[in-house]
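INFO  loader      accepted 1 record
INFO  loader      residues=202
INFO  predictor   begin
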Amino acid sequence: MHSDDTAFVIIDVQNDFCSGGALAVPGGEEVIPRINALQADFAVRVLTQDWHPVTHSSFASNHDSGQPFSVIEMEYGPQVLWPVHCVQGSNGARFHPDLETDPADVIIRKGFRPAIDSYSAFFENDHATPTGLEGYLNRRGVRNLVMAGLATDFCVRFSAVDAARLGFRVTVLEGACRAIDLDGSLAEARADMRAHDVEIAP
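INFO  predictor   done
INFO  writer      dumping tokens
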């Protein structure tokens, strides 16, 4: 059992990111048994959930010339255009049925603002609009975070880097994550996390 100042942050283990989903991460559901087994080791458990309106600006279908996985410039910086995924209330947005969700202390929904995407569990992609997770963890006395989930090179990466910037000590269990690896994004993510003193563990 980890001490009370350590939280397990389980990122976006949702149907659309697993096999058969709209934005399936290769082997996404393979992380679930290990995540389930680990939950009992932590006093604080957090689930994050992508929760997009159908009008979301990150969806390629909402842009006249937008192609999935192309990159456009938004007010807050570069934005990958994604296939429609994790639409609020849809089956794709639900947690994978094999994921044990009952132990969760809190569920953080992100990406619900139509004009801005949100990879990180802590901030929207403007790196300024908070989700509220930092305040929750601070009030719980949490200083250390262990992260797992989907996808290593997007939501896990940005969550880990933001947490480190906020002063948390962060460990990413890479063996309990899976990556999209879009144009070298996995190598870039590993380098970014290490540059911010995130520990990458098996």
